[in-house]
Amino acid sequence: MNIIDQQVKALIHKELDRQRRGIELIASENFASYQVVTSMGSWLTNKYAEGYPGKRYYGGCEVVDEIESLAIERLCKLFGADFANVQPHSGAQANMAVQLSILKPGDTLLGLDLAHGGHLSHGSPVNMSGKYYTVVSYGLDSEGRVDLNQVRELALKHKPKLIICGASAYSRDWDYQTFRSIADEIDATLLADIAHPAGLIVSKQLNNPIPHCHIITSTTHKTLRGPRGGIIVMGKDFPNRIGKKDKKGNTIPMSNLLNSAVFPGIQGGPLEHIIASKAIAFGEALDPSFTIYSKQVIQNAAFLSQSLVTQGLRIVSGGTDNHLMLVDLQSKNITGKEAENLLIKADITTNKNMIPNDPQPANTTSGIRLGTAAMTSRGFKETDFAKVSEWITRLIERRNDESFIHSVKLEINEYMRKFPLYPEVES
Ligand SMILES: *Cc1c(COP(=O)(O)O)cnc(C)c1O
């Protein structure tokens, strides 16, 4: 057992080098702190802890109980919430657990169309949510904003049991209050999936879904800057609204249904090493410095979006309220796929993304999605994003000039040396 795996170690360091030298604009990515990253690699991974703190199916859980309770306590404080489950392995698992707790196979859910910025787990036909439930989708209006009239029409017509607000590629804030009034008209449960803007919400830079939405799900690794994982939160617990009763005939609290849906519903043992790391990330998000970070993320996104517009690009919905934007590339005669492949040659990482009513198919697209959370963690301010905008637009203009592309790559690699990532680790 004393073999040192040089092969995997070398690959882990190769990936660190890739992250260090490039510009990371994938909107769903971030750079977690060194303590968040290293705490995931602990011996907590050795422990089985099926169940919840104080109610485990294994012995020896005293310490992991303390860790998980701390994570729950910090998360509740962060959201001003009464209930939290920190066990979902990912955002998709959190959504699956909510759906399992509220819907029976065949029941209807209403969510944002994937092609308009929604997420696979909100009813896409290739996802479990689309295979097991009847799915109705709303979209964006001609201005690129969530069409609340359509949401209401579809809700009244199809009477979904679950309405989901939240998206993966939507640059505007959400009107949770109006969603709630629509949900109340048909007695539906309202879920806000804040996987993307969670960090900006807890630092009070965006509308707060807690007072309006029955249930909140999120990832922990996007703007929240924690380890890769999921969470479920409720501002206030409530008796479940689908008529589930216990043996004594009492209506079961929603919190119990959610906990049972996560385990044993869809998962086995919790990842206590990741939960420890979540606890650390929640602690970081409670610190006033996280609010300063979130403000900068939003300022950087507003700046980047404005400067791309100045360069002749269109931003879907005309701008951004959060950390991301969808860039329509049609005016530059380049597809999303071509732009993604071009930019990566200069170590700028982005992803192609459909724009509303995209004439191109999903594997080509007319847009790219850009986010500022990761580079803000590296220390980027507006002046640095001015460079980013210039690099992107120049690369698109001179896309066939390989030596120019290479010179930009070298310039970027040099630039990034001023923004150290995990200086604790030698390359
Ligand atoms: C990223 C995302 C998820 C899923 O996260 P995973 O951790 O990749 O499963 C869920 N919902 C939305 C809206 C997302 O953007």
Indicate the CATH architecture of the largest domain: 3-Layer(aba) Sandwich
Tertiary shape: globular
Structural class: alpha/beta
Give the termini separation: 26 Å
Strand order of the largest sheet: 4-10-9-8-7-5-6
Give the fraction of residues assigned to helices. Answer: 40-55%
Structure description:
- Helices cover 42% and strands 13% of the residues.
- It is of the alpha/beta class.
- It has 2 domains: 38-286, 3-Layer(aba) Sandwich (Aspartate Aminotransferase, domain 2), CATH 3.40.640.10; 293-418, Aspartate Aminotransferase, domain 1.
- A 7-stranded mixed beta sheet has the order 4-10-9-8-7-5-6, sandwiched between helices.
- The longest helix has 23 residues, at 288-310.
- It starts with 5 loop residues before the first helix and ends in an 11-residue tail after the last helix.
